[in-house]
Amino acid sequence: MGLEPKNLQSSIPVPSVQELASLQLEAVPSRYIRDDMESIISTVASDNSTLRVPLIDMAKLVDSESHGTELQKLHAACKEWGIFQLINHGVADESLRNMNKQTEEFFDLPLKEKKRWAQKPGSLEGYGQAFVTSEEQKLDWNDMIFLKALPIEDRNLEIWPENPPKFRESLDRYSQDMRQIAVALTRFMAMGLEIETRELCAAYEDGLYQIRMNYYPPCPQPERVTGLTSHVDIPGFALLLDCGDTPGLQVLKDGRWIFVEPLDGAVVVDMGADHRGKWILSNGLYKAPEHRAVVSKSKERRSIVTFCYPGLSFKVGPAMELIKLGSPPLYKTVTVEEYLGCFFNPKPDVPFIDTMKI
Questions:
Q1: Where is the Fe2OG dioxygenase domain (predicted)?
Q2: In the chain, how many H helices and how many E strands?
């Protein structure tokens, strides 16, 4: 019998991990246990300097004297890693601190108060967990709140927390700051690929910006659980802010899980995938890395992730300039709206990649 279709645009309610952690359990419930985590974590090699995530300086990309060299570094980081840390990005420290503080204060609220903004049936937006589609599914060791931020008309203010009092104000400014980074980065990435920048930048100027705030509580058995299941993001890219100095984000590089060490004020840029695990506009030149989050036995961790997509009418496909260079497209070109519709409503028993082949 075929599988039932999954609707990834909604999530089944599950217990708060933060509340479970407050019970000071000696062992976590079986639904969170991942039998393969111990062997996987033992392969981490963050102490190897050749396996450290690249560091890109936005100020050097802007400066005429250093632009060429830094653009080459950016191009190499996107080709070889698909993830890098961005410094001197132009966003004021105040904006980052305020969003960090509001995230901390939100998760510190009593559970009853947080549930005022819980996910509603049929929607991913709100407080809860993402992509839980069955009662048998293994769960991640985190709680989150997911909100659509831009364009403004997409905001569902019924589930934008009014407590903490400055949450909405801080999120409004933060989302616009992340859009500023996304538009600038898109321009430089297009330069690195030697493709037209104007249309792409305009697509991100009018694009979709959705923000997920994560809370990873301490766990009595961190080697047996995952904070966030390994995955590759969908087209566009994600901008991650680590709220503190507790490491947790890992990227798979050359068969080894590498920690992305938190760097104060830096934003982690993570490329989204097309159907082949590559950034779609690059026609396979830029990577989209598999990544995950792990947790600590003694320390909590928070992060804020902004998912950046072009506008819904933008056509997702390899850049024409790259196709003309002799790299024929292997997959359909579709609008962002069509792509997201297929991704969030996959056909049963059919790999998503097969639905997009020409």
A1: 207-310
A2: 11, 14
Fold of 30-355: Jelly Rolls (2.60.120)
Query: What pTM does this model have?
Result: 0.88
Any residues with CB less than 8 A from the CB of 354 and at least 6 apart, and which?
none
Integer Cα distance of 251 and 53 in angstroms: 9
Tally of residues, the chain: 358
Residue 34's alpha-carbon distances to 37, 293, 301, in angstroms, are: 6, 13, 20
pLDDT in tens, 171-187: 999 999 999 999 999 99
Q: Which residues pair with 316 in a beta bridge?
A: 334
Encoding tokens for residue 71? Answer: 């653009």
What residue has token string 């003694």? 298
Q: Measure the CA–CA gap between 203 and 79, rounded to whole angstroms.
A: 22
For residue 338, the model assigns a pLDDT of: 80
DSSP labels for 2-66? Answer: PPPPP-TT-------HHHHHHTT-SS--GGG--TTHHHHHTT--TT-GGGSPPEEEHHHHHSTTT
Sheet holding 249-253, edge to edge: 228-231, 291-293, 249-253, 256-259
Provide the pLDDT confidence category of residue 4 given band limits of 50, 70 and 90.
Answer: very low
Tokens 């992730």, located at residue:
305
